[in-house]
Design brief:
With 152 residues, the chain is α+β, with helices and mostly antiparallel strands. It has one domain: Gcn5-related N-acetyltransferase (GNAT) (Aminopeptidase). It is built from four helices and five strands; from the N terminus they run βααβββαβα. It has a five-stranded mixed sheet. Strand 4, helix 3 and strand 5 form a beta-alpha-beta unit. Helix 1 packs across helix 2. The longest helix has 15 residues. The chain is globular and about 40 Å long. This is GNAT family N-acetyltransferase. It comes from Miniphocaeibacter halophilus.
Length: 152
């Protein structure tokens, strides 16, 4: 199976939308997905890569700079999504490897990510990729407007 990994394009928005909806359960509107991509694709502190099979995006990874006053610079993996039919084929690992290469080239000291507590299989995958669990935490949000998309 030949998978190509490349930088995300605005034309990939529909695939990103579908991966978010059907693989992650986030029904974030397609138009807003496009708007977000337009904002970040040319921003050097962000990187969105896609895995393509026969012209269709089957996975993506999103990462960005993570700066803090109490630790060295890292890259934060915000999303890693692989379509169900393409899981356990090494695609997620290749995407992480590419983000790690970018992070090293940019002088970052490492990668970080957060993962829901119930995603035990995913946690095993991250451990195999060299990630270490450092703590459990609660995530809090405060929306400024009445937003319907609070299923996160």
């Amino acid at each position: 199976m030949e998978i190509t990994i490349r930088r995300c394009l605005i034309e990939d928005a529909n695939y990103i939308y579908k991966l978010n909806k059907f693989s992650l359960g986030y029904d974030y509107p397609l138009e807003k997905t496009k708007e977000k991509l337009e904002k970040i694709l040319d921003n050097n502190s962000y990187r969105v890569l896609v895995a393509v099979y026969k012209g269709e995006v089957v996975a993506y990874i999103e990462a960005h700079d993570y700066e803090s006053l109490y630790q060295d610079s890292l890259k934060d993996i915000m999303a890693l999504v692989v379509a169900k039919d393409f899981q356990n084929m090494g695609i997620g690992g290749k995407l992480i490897d590419r983000i790690e290469k970018w992070a090293r080239n940019e002088g970052s000291k490492g990668l970080r990510l957060v993962s829901r507590e119930k995603r035990q299989e995913t946690h095993m995958f991250y451990r195999k990729k060299g990630f270490k669990e450092i703590k459990l935490q609660k995530n809090f949000k405060k929306y400024f407007l009445n937003i319907e998309n609070e299923k996160q």
